Every structure is written in C-alpha cells, then in structure tokens.
Amino acid sequence: MELRDASALVTGAGRGIGRAIALALAREGACVTAVSRTAEELDSLVGEIEDAGGRGLAFAGDLRSPSFPGDAVRAAVDRFNGLQVLVNNAGLGVFGNVAETRDEDWQAVIDTNLTAVFRLSRAALPHLARRGGHVFMISSLAGSNANPGMAAYAASKAALDHFARCLMLEVRSRGIKVTTIAPGSVDTTFSGAAGGDTSWMLTPEDIAQTLVELAQMRDGAHSSRVEMRPARPQKR
C-alpha cells in the first residue's frame, strides 16, 4: 500500500502503542484520524502531526458506546475522502482472579477489546473495499498464553485472534488484508512496569515500525499474524 495520502484510523491513539502508530503513519504521509476517550491527549497528538506537516483529526469518545465506532469511521471518511487503514489498538485490562472479577469489569474488557473491534471493522469494510485496505488488530501474546489473574484480558485477546482469522478469510478476496500483531511485554503504562527496569522490553515504536512495514508489503503478499517478543527475557 502507498501510505502517502492514505486515510488511516487508529484507536487508543492518545498514548502508548496507539500514539506511536499514529505518528509513524503520519510520517509516511498518511492522514490520521486519532480516536481515544481523552480529548486533550488527542489534541496534543494531532498538534504534533500537523507541526510536522502532516494531517490529523482528533475524534474523542467511548468505543464502548454502540454508535461511536460507526461515527468514528464516518468522521475519517468525510474528512479524508475514504478509509484505507484501520488500526484496532484500543485495549482495556482489568486484572485479578476470576473469583474477584466483577461483572462490570468483565463486560468493560470484552466491550472494549472485542465488541468495539467488531463494530469498527464492520463499519469500515465497505470503505476499505473501494481501494483495497488493511485492518490491523493489536492483540497480545496473552491471547495464546494463560496466566493467573488475567482471565478477562486473555479471553478477550484469544477471542480477538479468532475474530481476526475469520475476518481475514472472509475479506481477502475483496482486496482487504487483515493482520494481527501480538506483542509480548511493551514498555507502556499499561504494562505496569513504570519505575522499574524496562530496558529489556519492546517499545511502542517497535510495534509501530512493524505495522508500517506490513502496510507497505506488496499487494500480492499478506502476513496475517506477527508475534513480537523482547529479544532477551526479563532479567531477574
């Protein structure tokens, strides 16, 4: 895909991996619609994009609202005359043993990590099919590796992985690629590693660089899943 002037929508763009992806796409010339719940973070991001000569749109709201994913897609299409790249990055983690997990916490994780992805992807497909598009799912190695205290998060990512595989098989004949990127430990506030030694971890920029390279892969090639890990395990 030629990213210059392509329209890209990135969720969870206010910080961490999402912000790094939005900036990386903008550096390649993409027009970025940045989605997050926090307007101030999005305004800062779009300001950085525009200061560097790029084009961006801040669209704040809650992806768990049934109408918001469709609204976000329409905003991107209206502002940048279409949509070629969708990055489903927004994620929520509520951690604790199953016996201690509240219904509302479980539902919030599933609604954010899975249901919103379904709604966004469904809304985006008609637009992605017009010129050939690419859907990226930012998953996690937790989706295929069980850990105590992570049942809600791991279940949501396992379901996301299967959703992505099904979607990929449904739309590949229409010129739409679907790629899952599943990182291990990434140095973000989400990882909970703030204040400790994070030098061994992946960085958000690692994920962003990989996504850009996958987006630029020739049309006849399709990498449907990429797993990423730190080159060396955590020092103990």
CATH class equals Alpha Beta
Discrete helix count: 6
Spatial gap, N to C terminus = 42 Å
The number of distinct structural domains comes to 1
**How does CATH name the architecture?**
3-Layer(aba) Sandwich
CATH topology: Rossmann fold
Spans of at least 5 consecutive residues whose pLDDT stays below 50 are none
Structural class of the helix and strand makeup? alpha/beta
Order of H and E elements:
EHEHEHEHEHEHE
What coarse outline follows from CA principal-axis ratios? Answer: globular
Task: Tell how many strands the DSSP assignment holds.
Answer: 7
Strand order of the largest sheet: 3-2-1-4-5-6-7
**CATH H level, superfamily name:** NAD(P)-binding Rossmann-like Domain
Question: What is the CA-based Rg, rounded?
Answer: 17 Å
Strand content: 15-25%
Helix content: 40-55%
Largest sheet: 7 strands, parallel
Average per-residue pLDDT, rounded, comes to 95
Which key phrases capture this entry?
single chain, 236 residues, alpha/beta, Rossmann fold, 6 helices, 42% helix, 17% strand
Describe the structure.
With 236 residues, the chain is α/β, with parallel strands linked by helices. It has one domain: Rossmann fold (3-Layer(aba) Sandwich), CATH 3.40.50.720. It has a seven-stranded parallel β-sheet, with helices on both faces. Helix 1 packs across helix 6. The chain is globular and about 50 Å long.
